[in-house]
Fold:
Amino acid sequence: MILKGKKVILRPVRLSDAPRFVKWLNDPEVHKFLQTRRHLTLAFEKKWLRGALTSNANKIFAIQTLDNVHIGSTSLEINRDHDRATFGIFIGDKRYWNKGLGSEAARLIIDYGFTKLKLHRIELGVLEYNPRAIKVYRRLGFKREGIKHDFIKFRGKYFDDYHMAILDREWKKRS
Ligand SMILES: CC(C)(COP(=O)(O)OP(=O)(O)OC[C@H]1O[C@@H](n2cnc3c(N)ncnc32)[C@H](O)[C@@H]1OP(=O)(O)O)[C@@H](O)C(=O)NCCC(=O)NCCS
Structure:
C-alpha cells in the first residue's frame, strides 16, 4: 500500500531501511523526542522490523520525499478488539524538519487509519518539550486527554507526557 501526498509518499517499510533507522534513532536530537531504546543496534532493529513486518497489528510506513529520499517513518499499532491504534512518527533526517512534510505524512496515515482500516480512535503520546509535534497534532484535531506527570527522565530532570487522541467522527467532521 502506497499513500501519496503533495510533498511526501508513504510506502511500506523494508528490512533494508534498518541502517537508516539505527542512525536516526541513535541521534540524540531525534531520540530525545521519542521513547525508544537508547543505543539501538542494527541487529536489534532488524529483529524488531522482521517482527513488525509480519504482524497485522503494525502498519509501518517509510516517509519519502517525492524524489524518493527516505526521511523517516510513521506507524499505527492497532488493537483490533477495540478498533483503536497508537500513532507514531519521526523524521530522522533533520534537514527535512519544519517543511510541512511531517504534517502531511501524519494526515495521510491517520486518514488511512480512519477510512481504510475503519479505526474508531487513534491516540498518541508526546513529551511536553516537543511543541513542534504538539502543534502538528493539534492542527490535525487531536485533543489532550491527560498528562502522565514526570513520565520520563531527561538530562537529570523529569518531564510530562501528554496523552492525545482523536475519534473517527471528529476526523470526518474536519475533513
Ligand atoms: C514532529 C515532526 C514529525 C513534525 O514534522 P515537521 O515536518 O518537522 O513539522 P511541520 O513542518 O509539518 O509542522 C511543524 C509546525 O510546528 C512549528 N514549530 C516548529 N518548531 C516549533 C516550536 N519550537 N514551537 C512551536 N511551534 C514550532 C512550525 O513552524 C510548523 O508550524 P507551521 O506549519 O504553522 O509553520 C518532526 O519534526 C520530527 O520527526 N521531529 C523529531 C521526532 C519527533 O518529535 N517525533 C514525534 C514524537 S511524538
User: Anything to note?
Assistant: The chain is about 30% helix and 35% strand. Residues 25 and 31 are 5 Å apart (CA to CA). The pocket of coenzyme A is lined by residues 30, 33-34, 72, 89-91, 97-103, 126, 130-133, 135-136 (CB under 6 Å).
